[in-house]
Amino acid sequence: MISKAFAIVLTLIFTAGVAAAQKAEVTVVLNEQFFDAFVDSVYQNFDPPQFNIAGIETARAGDEIAGYPLFQDLKALNGGPTNTAEPSCSESITVLREMRGVRTAVKFRNGRVYMPIAFSGEHALPIIGCVQFAGWAEANIDLQFDAESQRLLGRANVFNVNLNGTAGIGGSLIARMLQGTLDSKLNPIPLMNLDKLNIGVPVPSSGSLRMIPTDAKTEVQNGSLNVIV
Question: What is the pTM of this model?
Answer without folding.
Answer: 0.73
